[in-house]
Design a protein that fits this description.
36% strand, 6 strands
Length: 110
Amino acid sequence: MTRDPRLEQAMRDDLGALPGLSEKPMFGGLCFLAHGNMICAARQGRAMYRVGKPRHANALTIPGTAPMIHGGQEKPGYVWLRNPQLSDDATRARLTGWALDCVRDLPPKE
């Protein structure tokens, strides 16, 4: 899967100057982490957000979202956002906010 530098930069901008923010190439894309905890990831034509189980159903009502399927099973708490909604700043901001809420209280990973 090809990486998408434009989407990666948009997601960096969405996250802002977050303490403990790091980036790691993963899953054929670029993953954004807070103190080692996955927040979101960018891949060509789509982005993954860790919205958490409590917000999973709400996230799936947003146009352009789909459940994350890994190994043939849905991963509750994670959603994909696909084109053309990737260019909608408000949608990305909403999902980014939920993802940050999800990881805010997680202990740092070493």
